[in-house]
Amino acid sequence: MLKPPEITALRLRATLIQSPGGPSGTEEVAPQPSAPVPTRLLSYLGFGFAGLAVIALLLLTIGPLVLPYKTLTVYSGSMEPAIHTGSVIVDLPIEAKDVRIGDIITFQSPADSTKLITHRVVQVESGPGGISFITKGDANSASDSWRVPASGNGYKFWFSIPGIGFLLAWLQSPLGRILFLVIPAILLAGLFLYEMWWPRRPAGAG
């Protein structure tokens, strides 16, 4: 009697083939090193300094056109040492009735209406023409020969920034305006390109 052929089960052992990247089967990508900390710090400082410089110059040049203050460059030493030659002064509006002795005010020169003078009020005088201020430069030995009428509105000295008056005047020249736009643009572009093209070390290096 013939026996039916035995059926032998075919058992296959499954083998997990792992990818070269690791046991999870996904390839690991080594992080690219960034620029050294000192380089990044210098870049941040450069961007910050450039931004602050632009903001400061805009406040000194464009700000007086839209905000209630005035900026002027000092070309003489009549108010030394309180205000140095070459400083930029910032004036705020004030009514004549609020001016007191000791205040530093800015007014038109009686000899030249296109010229502004910033001197200190040293005396208030009453006369046939009304109340007026007697002014004097701190570095001058005598009071001014003119009288400033104490009427209407004017400007009172708030603070000064030494040393940048001549620079600001130069920046308002045609060449200065061009360089003011070109130099910051070159510096910012250089910092950006340096950060973007900083050489990357190969994965696994030191």
H/E element order: HHEEEEEEEHH
Please summarize the sheet with the most strands.
7 strands, antiparallel
Helical proportion? 25-40%
Strand-residue fraction? Answer: 15-25%
Question: Ranges with pLDDT <50 over ≥5 residues?
Answer: 1-10
Structural class: alpha+beta
Q: What does the radius of gyration come to?
A: 37 Å
Number of strands: 7
Ends distance: 78 Å
Strand order of the largest sheet: 1-2-7-3-4-5-6
Labels describing this entry:
alpha+beta, single chain, 4 helices
Structural account:
The chain is an alpha+beta fold and 206 residues long. The protein is built from 4 helices and 7 strands. The chain has a 7-stranded antiparallel beta sheet with strand order 1-2-7-3-4-5-6. The longest helix has 25 residues, at 37-61. The radius of gyration is 37 Å and the shape is elongated.
Quick gist of this model?
With 206 residues, the chain is an alpha+beta fold. The chain contains 4 helices and 7 strands. Strands 1-2-7-3-4-5-6 form a 7-stranded antiparallel beta sheet.
Secondary structure elements and pairings:
Blueprint: H1 37-61, H2 63-66, E1 70-73, E2 88-95, E3 104-108, E4 116-127, E5 130-136, E6 148-149, E7 153-161, H3 165-171, H4 174-196
Antiparallel strand pairs: 1-2, 2-7, 3-4, 3-7, 4-5, 5-6
Helix pairs in contact: 1-4
